[in-house]
Amino acid sequence: MESKHKRGTIMNRISQIVHLPYAHSQGFLGQGIGIACLDTGITPNHPDFTIPSRRIIGFYDAIYHKEFPYDDNGHGTHVAGILCGSGAASNGRFKGIAPESYLSVVKILNHQGDGYTEDFENCIHWLLSNKSRLGIRIVNISMVSESGYDFDEDSHFVKQVEKLWDAGLIVVAAAGNGGPGPGSIGAPGNSRKIITVGSSDKASRRAGTGPTHACIKKPDIVAPGSNITSCSLPNRYYFYTQKSGTSMSTPIVSGAIALLLSKYPGMTNLDVKIRLKDTAIDLGRPHEKQGWGLIDVRRLLEG
User: Fold this and answer.
1) Among 3.30.870.10, 3.30.530.20, 3.10.450.710, 3.40.50.200, what is the CATH number of 2-302?
2) Is 247 tagged catalytic?
């Protein structure tokens, strides 16, 4: 009981920082907004993705080419829970940021959390081919290369991600956990175009920091990333676990963007990026550590 109470307190603290209660009380829950989650997959039978209704509407497995959703690692399930978990298994305590949005899950990482660039290219093709059919507006990428040195801004890998942005999708990627030294933003977060997310709290000690090796100012924005409680691979005792890192910060931002689109569905990816810049809270840190500042959902929605 003590452990559960502690986890609830952590999630409530995050909700207060990003003003989720305000957004949800105003009826902005990500209704009708499709989010693609590129990760290790998803556990489809977790109550938070099936109750009150099933919201996994698309799945593509670039690793083993299986037809039905699964997660052999747990990272993707955790990220998906932050994005849009309903909180059904916790009586609403651990509800995700945009609990009425829809998920298209792309399994690009294997059971060890590793992936290959050739598989990633297939994922990009699948997303571009299915974005209209599945109503995808946002692409969440909580994965990074080991270092921006491996894939610089002009690399084929980064250019593939930018195809999604050029097609009108809102691409949100993690800064990575290769910091705290300068120039430690991983790819594809080193892209000039997409929205790159760092961590605002204890996880920021290892978060990737800018500028990139092409002298691009990154990250763009920060969000909480320490001890985030979200969905786990279910067992007979508990449906949630805690993880830390910019992988957790990223879906907070993606989910907040889904709330914004549920209020202003006509916004473009550039509109969203400008809105994030104009409404972030300056934490008084150097740009290479905080970007524009801390995301605040209330300010984001009110403009």
Assistant:
1) 3.40.50.200
2) yes
